[in-house]
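testing teh design pipeline on a random one, pls ignore if ur not involved
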């Protein structure tokens, strides 16, 4: 069976709901990280990490909207708002700094009139924890994920 991710808040390929849109930069969203659940991680999985990345941001390097690492191997879901200070992150989990400049989830906020993709990815890792902190950038988290990913599962939503 393949490693998969799903969400009660998001549907792959659909428009991002207002609940996950940023509150600021001209938007009035709820800025809540989505509910995510995953199944069938590969043998040898020791922890999980999650990212939300916008490859369409006009920066030359995309935009990191969320990073969370050091999720335990027996975890299979996060509730809505877990990355937004609403509770639900397990002890030891670390949210990394987004391109909004702080740790925690930051929702969709593309420049007006632009159409962007938001890729939510769950990574199954071969280590118990990554050496990252709330000060670590999305690029640094991505660098560490590159060396420890056994499998990954993604869903993509759009917003404009």
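output:
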């Amino acid at each position: 069976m393949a490693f998969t991710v799903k969400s009660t808040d998001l549907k792959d390929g659909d428009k991002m709901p207002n609940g996950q849109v940023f509150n600021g930069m001209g938007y009035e969203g709820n800025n809540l990280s989505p509910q995510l659940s995953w199944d069938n991680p590969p043998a040898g999985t020791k922890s999980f990490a999650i990212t939300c990345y916008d490859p369409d941001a006009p920066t030359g390097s995309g935009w990191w909207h969320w990073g969370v690492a050091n999720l335990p191997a027996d975890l299979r879901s996060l509730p809505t708002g877990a990355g937004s200070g609403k509770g639900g992150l397990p002890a030891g989990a670390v949210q990394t700094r987004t391109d909004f400049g702080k740790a925690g989830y930051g929702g969709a906020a593309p420049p007006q009139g632009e159409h962007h993709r938001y890729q939510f990815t769950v990574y199954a890792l071969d280590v118990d924890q990554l050496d990252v902190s709330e000060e670590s950038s999305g690029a640094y988290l991505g660098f560490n994920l590159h060396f420890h990913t056994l499998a990954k599962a993604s869903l993509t939503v759009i917003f404009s």
